[in-house]
Specification:
The protein is mainly α and 678 residues long. The chain has 29 helices and no strands.
Length: 678
Amino acid sequence: MSETHLPGNREDRDRSVSAVAAPPDRHRNLVQWTARLVAVLAVSLSLFQLYTAGITALTALVQRSIHLGAILSLTFLLKAPFKGARKDKLTVWVLMDWILVLASVTCTFYICYNLTDIFERQGDWLQSDLAISIIGTLLVLEACRRVIGLVMTGICLAAILYAHFGPYMPELIIHKGYSIERIATTLWLTTEGIFGLPIGVAATFVFVFVLFGAFLESTGGGNFFIELAYSITGRFSGGPAKTAVVASGFMGSVSGSAVGNVVATGSFTIPMMKKVGYRPHVAGAIEAAASTGGQLMPPIMGAGAFLMAEFTETSYLTIVKVALVPAIMYYVTVLLFVHYEAKKYGLEGQPRENLPRAMKVIREGLHFIIPVLILIYVLRANYSPMMAGFVAVLSTVAASLAANSIRWATSGRRYPSDDPDRLSLAQFGLRELKQTLGALEKGARNAVMVSVACGAAGIIVGMVTLTGMGLKFSSLVLDLSFGIEALAILLIGAASLVLGMGLPVTASYIVLATLAGPALLDMGVPLLVTHMIVFWYSQDANVTPPVSLASFAGAGIAGANPMRTAFTSWKLAKGLYIIPLIMAYRPLLGMGENYELLHWEVAFAMVTTTLGLVAFASALERYFIRRATWLETGLFTLGAAGLFWPQAWGDLLGGLAFMTAIALQKFRKNVFSESARK
């Protein structure tokens, strides 16, 4: 769910207080007290979010302001203002950070304390309202600069300047312009700006699921999913690579972070892939492409999925339902590329005796599966995603405590009561408490980036709404695409690539949905399909050069060239570009207003699209059951194009071309086999 900081880009800037080198004695107290404050603030925020998710809900503006106040405070305590600034020494920059923390608390508390008055004097603002609004907006911009970078900060500033200097803009985007007072108060004192829908989703649904992922990881759920994937796929050709794909699917379904997935699973799978013969850049690329799919895989698909449910006024369960089949298709595509790579280079799997047994892994890690099943059940029972996340967190804590208690109780059989390795009841309880508090702190830390991104995105959305820029941009897309739906979708894909160079995927989705989404709606694309297309394309920054965040993270672990890794991951993740385009023409998401999946047209679309993806991967890799000739490659290409084409004659032509290519492959294989026997 959380969007991890950019590896190799802002690591120095993102150093936490606890991660700095051991400070001199005279400054140690400063570091310790700051670390304690961070821990208390993070744990308190997590407990507050759980309380409001499952016990008592608060007014939207109050909930969002408290959440943002805590997030801004954590940002200024954890993130250095610039590269090289020290947090382990009392400097003017440390003092400035404490002033910013105080300002963050003041500006957000101002909303809570004056909530009724703010509602009553809408438009008739006091000087204090204006001052607080300006300071609060500047605080969000500074947090955005520290956490995300200058690009998104620049876009936010450009949106504000555009709102103010509207009369001086070119004819295409001109508008009447708005005063500083109108802009600042809209952004800070209403739910149309910073405290709009993006931060609203981050402060409710997203946070509890980030917390859920943190508890799973802290209790060993990450290792369980990796072991399970390894036990299933390890014996096949290119076993470790297929393990990476499956494990990233498992992890992504509960974490929703591509870069976080790479770091979590890649530290295990990438060395395994290199050990069996995968080239370093290929190993890093496979992990990056697989981890990107994690943000597309239900039941937890990243912050964008919760935003999509709100934007489309659709239940989250419906989002999960329609997203499942395309996500599986994406992973099928990645697995095909991995399989062909393994076959071409003779990379075999591991012997069965060297692999963990799946049933043993499931038996030992059953308590990690139970919370996920409970989560799905609660969603199916039509409870809100907030309540589902709340129940999932509590069930994770309960399941982990029960499993650990059983292990502790049975450890007496191995250890005598006087054995120093045998934990006392008090020691056991203290260990579990520390683990729980650690997960609460980690969840809040992990939520910092996505919440800051959503707050900053609120500036963009607020200014787009205020100025009517969305309609202007939509008209521009319509004009450039000449009313051709496929061309409009490709233009949106290109725009997402440009935005992805500076924006995290959640922010990219929000901007694209606000600006470009209306163009597809005007062309007759259904609302949910439109948002699903935009959501898919917003993920491409993870694997698409020149800015390929997940690829760069994979390259760092693999010790490979970052750009070479990025281009390889781009090839492996081609389903990310093809499947959204097909969504617009075939009912991959379901039929009718309720998006029913049990329909023959849906089944037919799934079959033809899957076969098309197989043909496409075979053409690109020039391999099916053996290396393909140029004639076979051409037939695979024709087969893919025909099967993707949304008409019956295309399916027929594509199917014939695909089967002909397979027949030629089998014929050549039999001929060579016969020659070898002779």
